[in-house]
Amino acid sequence: MPSDRKESIVKNATQRLRQELTGASGPAALVENIKAILVNVAIFVVGIVIQCVTAVGGSSCIVAGRFVTGLAIGAMSVNVPNYDAEVAPPEVRGSLVALQQLAITAGIMVSFWIDYGTNNIGGTGPTQSDAALLVPLYLQLIPGIALGIGMIFMPFSPRWLVHHGREAEARKVLSSLRDLDQEHPLIELEFLEIKAQSVFEKRSTPEKWPHLVALTPLNTFKL
User: Fold this and answer.
1) Within the chain, how many helices (H) and strands (E) appear?
2) Could you count the other beta carbons within 10 Å of the beta carbon of residue 202?
3) Cα–Cα distance for residue pair 192/44, rounded to 1 Å
4) pTM of the entire predicted model
5) Each residue's pLDDT tens digit in the chain (223 positions)?
6) Which of 44, 202, 58 is nearest to 130 (CA)?
7) Which of 70, 57, 68 is nearest to 134 (CA)?
8) Cα–Cα distance for residue pair 20/18, rounded to 1 Å
9) How far apart are CA 99 and CA 95, in angstroms?
10) How far apart, in whole angstroms, are the C-alpha atoms of residue 142 and residue 70?
């Protein structure tokens, strides 16, 4: 398809979306994935610390620590893909989700080999060192802390910014993520698509879930 034809299609679609979204407003109810990820990283670290005191507190610390870290990992298995989808270009979102699953599988494989290697520290009998158990536990802190530090430098997603009325900032972030000028037709089209989804969510939430409209701490937690 000729480039001028593509540009014309983009401009027409952009104009239609702009007309439909003029004056749209509603309550904002999305929770930023960056904040959720950082909170869950902190919970994960607490869980690891609980596990690491097992040499003093006994096996009950392992059970309690695994429960806490399980909560954090379960939550991040939702937050991280959501954030990836919100900042990634549409054409690579599926690939990123597949890559994340590959990374999880690779991490499980690496963890098995680490456990195998550290199991022989001090021998495998009565002489076995506490390090055989503690080293793998402490090593879990490395990817967790790395994720937390990395997320500090990541931008808010354009979708969250639009949903909270920070449209100028959303355009700027979207332009930076796509490495295109803010006035580029593709930026304008994606921005309006994001806004259309936001408007739909704002209008449908009061109809389908009226008890979640008020942004109380409990409702924010539920969302």
Assistant:
1) 11, 0
2) 18
3) 37
4) 0.75
5) 555 555 554 455 445 444 444 433 333 334 578 888 999 999 999 999 998 887 666 778 888 899 999 999 999 988 888 898 888 888 888 888 888 889 989 999 999 999 888 888 877 777 778 888 888 889 999 999 999 999 999 999 898 888 888 889 999 999 999 888 888 888 888 888 888 888 887 777 777 777 776 767 777 666 6
6) 58
7) 57
8) 5
9) 6
10) 17
- Contacts of 88-91 with CB under 8 Å at 24 or more apart are 89/177, 89/178, 90/190
Nearest to 220 by CA among 26, 25, 30: 30
* Residue 63: CB atoms within 10 Å: 12
Write the DSSP string, 58-69. -HHHHHHHHHHH
Rounded CA-CA distance 223/169 in Å is 23
CB count within 10 Å of CB 141 equals 14
For the CA atoms of 194, 196, 198, 202, the dihedral, rounded to the nearest 10 degrees, stands at 180
Residue 42's CB is within 10 A of a number of other CB atoms, namely 13
| C-alpha dist (Å) from residue 82 to 55, 107, 110, 122, 186 | 37, 20, 25, 44, 22
Closest CA to 42 of 60, 68, 61: 68
